[in-house]
Design goal:
The chain has 1030 residues and is of the alpha+beta class. The protein has 37 helices and 33 strands.
Length: 1030
Amino acid sequence: GNSLKMECCPWSRCCGMGDFRPRTVWLGHPEKREQRYPRNVINNQKYNFFTFLPAVLFHQFKYFYNLYFLLLACSQFINELRLGALYTYWVPLGLVLAITIIREAVEEIRCYLRDKEMNSQIYSKLSTRGTVKVKSSGIQVGDLIIVEKNQRVPADMIFLRTSERNGSCFLRTDQLDGETDWKLRLPVACTQRLPTAADLLQIRSYVYAEEPNIDIHNFIGTFTREDGDPPVNESLSIENTLWASTVVASGTVVGVVIYTGKELRSVMNTSNPRHKVGLFDLEVNCLTKILFGALVVVSLVMVALQHFAGRWYLQIVRFLLLFSNIVPISLRVNLDMGKMVFSWMIKKDSKIPGTMVRASTIPEQLGRISYLLTDKTGTLTLNEMVFRRLHLGTVAYGMDSMDEVQSHVFSAYTQPSHDLPASRAPAATKVRKTISSRVHEAVKAIALVHNVTPVYEANGVTDQAEAEQHYEDTCRVYQASSPDEVSLVQWTESVGLTLVGRDQSSMQLRTPTGQILNFTILQIFPFTYESKRMGIIVRDESTGEITFYMKGADVVMAAIVQYNDWLEEECGNMAREGLRVLVVSKKSLTEEQYQDFEARYVQAKLSVHDRSLKVATVIESLEMEMELLCLTGVEDQLQTDVRPTLEILRNAGIKVWMLTGDKLETATCTAKNAHLITRNQDIHIFRPVTTRGEAHLELNAFRRKHDCALVISGDSLEVCLKYYEYEFMELACQCPAVVCCRCTPTQKAQIVRLLQERTGKLTCAVGDGGNDVSMIQEADCGVGVEGKEGKQASLAADFSVTQFKHLGRLLMVHGRNSYKRSAALSQFVIHRSLCISTMQAVFSSVFYFASVPLYQGFLIIGYSTIYTMFPVFSLVLDKDVKSEVAMLYPELYKDLLKGRPLSFKTFLIWVLISIYQGSIIMYGALLLFESEFVHIVAISFTSLILTELLMVALTIQTWHWLMIVGELLSLACYVASLVFLHEFIDVYFITTVSFLWKVTVITLVSCLPLYILKYLRRRFSPPSYSKLTT
């Protein structure tokens, strides 16, 4: 059957590899495969060698804009339509395309080199000939690969052996899921027991693995050894896997490859982010379409004035070509280069160090944000935990009374607790004894129920082995999957009970007296976001007692612990102080109870169907009537300058929404703490709703309140959006601040999408963890904060900052400047091309509507490049106010939200200016026109260029030395090139006095009125920013 399967497989390959199937992988025998697997190559490129040019050109010409220019240039090959030299149309188009193609090619080559480096990393492979070297791209399903410490895992593998004494290894997964903590991974027990790694090839064994999918946090499979006596069956779960793109942090590991290439978990998880196009670009595109309309109208008018004589349809095309300058070809290039300059400025700003621009196409978006959606943990807060409170129900210990806890713990280990008969002891000591023992029980539980591992690193004095042997305090570092856990273990150390050692099966604590307590770990139930709790079963080696400890969120623990009257109330109190609350409980088990549980648990773990459900059911049988020990409160500190930054954003007219996965009380508390909700504001806490009726009532209650902040949980939000989407969004958008708690990553993205659809305003999302990626990619502007949770968010974002407080400057200064400058630049480029088109129109109408070009070949090209490019482009350096002023008066930003810098009104004003100047220059030149046509060209062209240079000077608000250089350089270029242009311009005529005065008069007439108008306008209705600068 095997050969037959191999026969039909190539066909299934052709029909598409869409169907992923489960697989049986024989250890060390890649040739025994039953289906074809993809090659293990990483490919992040957008194009390949053959598709590169067609694809890039397609992306360019799908814009109406570039297609128009391509058709223009092509029409020049037809003789009847030919106007002047071919290069007049092909050179500008070629330049635009060349710049784009080079930019894409550079990115592609960078990408290719990165991929090549990854694909050609060398690994060791176990084979019958001993260990051989193999490239990452040559690894196949079924190979046994050896990965050294600090080496990247090349493919998805099942973990078979490790060199570590404790029989486990740590992985760094920050490249895969964005979490910076290390993950503990366990080898398959059967293969770890083999004497040497070479024996893996001697045994007959296989791994059965589920089909490839995108879930990086789960895996279901089994390991079978056939030649065992009896055959060995082991269940495999996520803790036996080594996913590709993770890094081995300890020891050397051996694994068997189960997925390669595009079936890797890490590859299946990278979604293609949507290509963001800025609102500004859409507006410019719209203006170009209007200009195109104008072009068609002008051409038709010209032909109509000729009374449609002769082959008028050819005349229309010739006029279209003649006035083609109305739609400026250099606009896109100028704006793209402008964007590159803005991105460079953001990177180089010393006030916001470490800021990266990953999407250089949308810096103008930053200038008109209306809604800012932010994550809480790690974005507004530091994600650094400090232990604040231990609550035992009758008594609570705060930061100031930790010494009492310390003395209780000390007394528990120093006083012999059984030599005083109870009758002789006075009542007071008995009470104190119980408090003391309760504190000790609580501290011991906190020191045991966690996933923290102490790691010893060599310092200058002691080396690693010695430090591990003597449990040196100075060399110890705690590694764990969340900062909460570390802060709890560090606290138990501060009160005298220290976690000094841990491996897979045991834990060591050191008492205040220096004695070492040994605990065997029998089972561990890790924390998940669904269960919101973690548990551990340990056996105390000195007494043999088995205890089940558990800690978790108050919501789930309330049903698990024995009835009491204080849990709910105290949890609420602590949450209101902004603390993260965990409930700690315990249950003592007899040996029989434990054995019975273990048998059922192992049975459940071996099942292939509904495994997680069956396992959960078995664990839940233990989770009842547990003894409540204590509550712990941990505080998450705010990042620096969060309050002033939020204040700036609020004054700038930006509404801030906080979307967090944290619970309602903590979220509300952080919101108040960060002054997201101001002191005197009412808060409306949206009651939990589940049905349509409840949502209706609650919305009505909310509608009656004015100017109050809204706090709502994810589930209630879901219900409201299901039934009353429009009403809810309308009310929420009017709120000064909104806090959504208990949000899932998909809900975060959904809220962003709704805001965009409902309000049509621009949104900006800020986050730091893997759970914020979907929201960041959905928003018009995604900002990633490089936080404790790793780099995943900052890599997916359009902009990444190192601290939340940098956001203020990014928007107020850079966003505002980018938007205003791009607006000025685009209007100027349009003005520049309209001027020359107006002159052409005047010229044609004077000469009986002839379709004859006014300026030939090089003059047209020179006009939009060498002669006026530098001054016009130098507008990207212009700024209306100093950056300090922009930060001090965020209200300036509010002005931009109306979209005034580039609107139909400003566009129309510029069109009128262009028509005025074009006609003045042309009529002026005609009036003062001597005997020859040559002189008209010389006079009008020189006046045109001087006018352009003066207009740039008129628009500039703050001079920069580069601008002056640009103006002078352009002038110099023009004067120098006159020598070469004798075919168009008579050099002798230029040097005469009459030429000079004619040019001066024309230029003054075209520019002076505008200067006067500008002065009057500044005098009588100054814009808001000028009031601040004077």
